[in-house]
Amino acid sequence: MINMGPQHPSTHGVFRLVIWVDGERIVKAEPHIGYLHRGSEKLCEDELYSQVITLFDRLDYVANLNCELAFCMAVEKLMEIEVPERAQYIRTIFCELNRIASHMLFYGVYGMDAGAVTPILYGFRERERIQSLFESVTGARMMHNYFRVGGVNEELPDDFEQRLSKLTDGLKQGIDECDGLLSQNEMFLARTKGIGTISGPDAIAFGVTGPALRASGVLEDVRISEPYGIYDRFDYGIPTGSQGDCWDRYYVRVEEMRQSLSIIDQAVNQMEAGEILANVRRIARPPKGEVYIRTESPRGDFGVFLVSDGTDKPYRVKVRAPSFCNLQALQHMLREAYIADAVIILGSIDIVLGEVDR
Amino acid sequence: MTVEQGVYYALGGLGLFVFLSVIVLILTWGERKVLARIHMRMGPMRVGFQGTLQPLADTIKLVTKEDILPSWADRRVYWIAPVAVFLPALLLWVTIPLGRDLVLRNLELGLFYITAISVLSVMGLLMAGWGSANKYAMLGGLRAAGQLISYEIPFIMSILGVAMLVQSLNLITIVDGQANYGYALVQPLGLFIFLMAGLAELGRTPFDIHHAESELVGGPFIEYSGAHWAVFFLAEYINTFTVAVLIVLLFLGGWRWPEMPFSGAALSALSALWFLFKTALVICVIFWIRGTYPRLRIDQLMSFGWKMLVPLSFINIVITGIVLFYGWPLWTLTVLSLVLLGGTFYLIVKNPGTSIERNTVTVHAIRATAQPPVPETASETEN
């Protein structure tokens, strides 16, 4: 019996995995979560709607803007607010950039899990570029608190479009470079091909969503099955795998970064000047009622269930965290794996503990 | 043994120790700088010019650090282990020459001595794993034992190929045998096997499974800190240097430079420098491999060792024997080796055993104008 974590460098946070081994083979694995539980959902009930956004930043701390978006959309749906066009485009661009940043982090850390020391620096280089662009707009590198109910907080700086086009050019090259560095590496293939497979029906039964589900060959993406925002205006691709193994889960993400770039390019071309914030009272008071909203975060189907009792604070907020649901499949994927595979498989699900434990 | 001899060996041993320590300091700095270049970083920059004093600062830190003894540890085994790893690493150097005269004691059976001593460090790693009373350390120790013992065979066999060519186990004779060309030209296959087995012996990427930072978090060394960890570290880098030196000695012609225009002390100094330069190149290749490749899994490592390297090393010996027996010109050996090497790479890349399907990811185009497609399998496969 081996105890992995909560203080283990490869559990991507404070995650604990107890594994029973026979030599190097895993007989049984038992995940333990809850080391990062902060009671975020309960905290939301004591905050104004505008303050809750900051709590959502801290759920999936690798893809904060996608979390903010989900909450803002939930409130907007409840209050029936029409978000201005320009704000929609800004949101889309930022969420897709955030998706690339998140996948870049995954890329780097995944290389590290496989034992390669170089990818992490390439991944972080690209992520750094995106973060410095975010910083110039939102003032923060990670906890942006940029989206508002009804739009976004601030107008973009004057040189934003030049900076963005420079960034996307750099990213295009960077993604190709990262792809070339790791994807077809013989040893990386040996480590990830056919490891931790999960079939499409199994993945659906476990509630797996996002890249991990698409890697199993299921064409499911909230952006196309229930288009929200302005996603129905763009031409892009949804990558799916066919084996459902670690390599597919890895490569689906690499491809997704390319598709996100194409969405960003289209969005920049379509974007026009205009309002960035709808006319909403500063202290929002949604009418009584409840709403559920689904968005596609980099990790999967990020859902927010919001109940309002008509006051300025939410009555109940429930988050459907994709990391949490994807983690359910870990035991299934770990069957008959080796100890070294455990790290690879866990990495391929790409969990963020802030979201798992909330 | 006379008094003079005793003094000679004592001073020589001390000198060797100091020399190797300095080499290790340079190696750690060099590794960090080379890796940093691969990573697009600067590497250490703060301490001294270009961070050259960083290794010294690290040493001071390590020596002054608290030495931790886990309460469950087997105290004696735990403390002896670093020494048991370090001593063989140092003992190897008794017979390794850095130049014609720069050797402590040139043994007639030098290569035999080296192969015999180098196996000993496995014991130290096992002891470290056992003594730490830590599951990760134990796993790491056992992995190290399995790995080192199975890679010992191709390691020795590839050395044997060279020894057959020279008809001697004396390292200086071997270098002299390469007066005109290095044996890398005659035995490229032997060089490949030696490099792979050497990397595995060192526990370096891609064979660093007994450290395995991502799953075993340092393997046998997990509980060690301070000076004792530093001893492991020293041994590891001395071994790296040793393998690089052996590659230069056995395959790259050692200190030989055709027609060196000097004599006496100048010749010795120059040839030692030339030798160290070659070694540095080999070490850079080792670092380069570290920067590029992920780690193999234990079963893959074993199957690579037993199914690939061991047969190859035997074949290498057989073809060397055939060529020598029939007195064919040596270039036939080169051709045979290259053909085998090419075949090996072909096998590795094609990987017929598992037939890796490379591109399993397809991109479905989503058109803005079209109706968003209904997710395919979702409705049919549920429940």
Residues in helix, % of chain A: 40-55%
Q: What characteristic shape of chain A results from the CA principal axes?
A: globular
CATH homologous superfamily descriptor of chain A = Cytochrome-c3 Hydrogenase, chain B
Q: What is the mean pLDDT of chain A?
A: 86
What string, H for helix and E for strand, traces the elements of chain B in order?
Answer: HHHHHHHHHHHHHEH
Task: Report the β-strand fraction of chain B as a percent range.
Answer: under 5%
How widely separated are the two ends of chain A? 28 Å
Q: Work out the helix count of chain A.
A: 15
What's the total number of strands of chain B?
1
Give the H and E element order of chain A: EEEHHHHHEEHHHHHEHEEEHHHH
Strand content of chain A: 5-15%
Quaternary structure classification: heterodimer
Give the number of DSSP strands of chain A. Answer: 9
Largest sheet, strands/sense/barrel of chain A? 3 strands, antiparallel
Return Rg of chain A in Å.
20 Å
**Which pair of chains forms the biggest interface, and how many residues does each contribute?**
A-B, 66 and 55 residues
- If you average the pLDDT of chain B, what whole number results? 81
Q: What is the level-2 CATH architecture name of chain A? A: Orthogonal Bundle
Strand order within the widest sheet of chain A?
Answer: 1-2-3
Write a compact overview of the structure shown.
The complex is a heterodimer of chains A (358) and B (383). By secondary structure, chain A is an alpha+beta fold.
